[in-house]
Amino acid sequence: MKKLSLIALFFVACSSIMAQSVEFTPIYGYTFSGTVYDYYGTFDVKDDVTFGGLLNVEIDQGLYVELSYQRINPTLIEERPLVNLKHDIGIEHYQIGAQKEFKQGQVKPFAELLLGTSRYFPRSGNNKDVWRFSGTLGLGAKVFFNDYLGIRLHTRLALPMEFGGAGIFCGIGGGCSGGVSFNVPLAHWELGGGLIIRLPN
Fold first, then answer.
1. Residue 178 burial (CB count, 10 A)
2. 3-class SS at 16?
């Protein structure tokens, strides 16, 4: 995790040298999660509030590198035969990606794609954390009051992925192909927003 953080910070620092503007956005919202079904039973992650922060560095007109951190503290209901347990857990998303604005002016609609990792952990006890590769798709709009302040409204879908395996297959004729299989055990849909603090170049 430390290596990922250092790489992300180095990338943003290098990008900021040529940045046209930088935006800091503390965010707050509400996340709708779901239920995971497996051979042992069901694991229901309850909906809860989301908080975190974003750093956006503009590298071209309307194109940003975004560094994102999100935290959720939901309750997990575990149901198995003769077992019904409640756990207090934490979920964190550490991601970096691109954001593209589609219009200049006071109101700026945007779309974004981010990749990174998601961490699932108990908020009490000594159980091990679970890390998953994850991606996030987002849509939203920024509304600016002036050159320095604005608000951001967005909807984002975080998709942690569980890899099932990978392989490379070669035939007698010399042709080869490869593939990776994975599934999305749980999706997190967020509605949120935040106050944008913008530092124009």
1. 9
2. helix
* Per-residue tokens: 22: 């930088």
At 11, is the secondary structure helix, strand, or coil? helix
> Which domains are assigned to the chain?
33-163+177-200 (2.40.160.20)
Task: Tell me which amino acid residue 94 is.
Answer: Y
163 Cβ contact list (under 8 Å, min separation 6): 133, 180, 181, 182
3-state helix, strand, coil in the chain (%, to 5): 10, 70, 20
Q: How many CA atoms lie within 13 A of 27 on its CB side?
A: 30
Task: Decide: pTM greater than 0.85.
Answer: no
Give per-residue pLDDT as tens, 113-136.
999 999 888 887 766 788 889 999
